[in-house]
Amino acid sequence: MKKLLTGTVTSDKGDKSIRVEIERRYRHPRYGKIVRGKTVCYAHDEKNEANENDVVEIIESRPHSKTKRWELVKVVKAAT
Question: Rounded distance, CA 49 to CA 76, Å?
């Protein structure tokens, strides 16, 4: 089963490439405080349809390059 993640596009400068940040919240193991963390994924965008600040859905895929391991599924919410 391939992983499906939802995140925000932080960069769309590359041709057919986007940088997606997935934000998560977790409890610190020692201090118990709720901490915000982020995971950065580079995704393949074949039609260049995603823009910066869009909320997108990405899925795991074969390696497209050195860093790209994800593909764009759809744009969930376009930036205003």
Answer: 12
Rounded CA separation 65/39 (Å): 18
Q: How far apart are CA 55 and CA 62, in angstroms?
A: 22
Structure tokens at 72: 């764009």
- The span from the first CA to the last CA of the chain, in angstroms, equals 33
pTM check: above 0.85: yes
Spatial distance between the Cα atoms of 19 and 44, rounded to a whole number of angstroms: 9
CATH number, domain 4-77? 2.40.50.140
Query: In the chain, what are the domain boundaries?
Result: 4-77
Q: To the nearest whole percent, how much of the chain has pLDDT over 70?
A: 100
Separation of alpha carbons 50 and 25, rounded Å:
25
pLDDT tens-place string over residues 5-33: 999 999 999 999 999 999 999 999 999 99
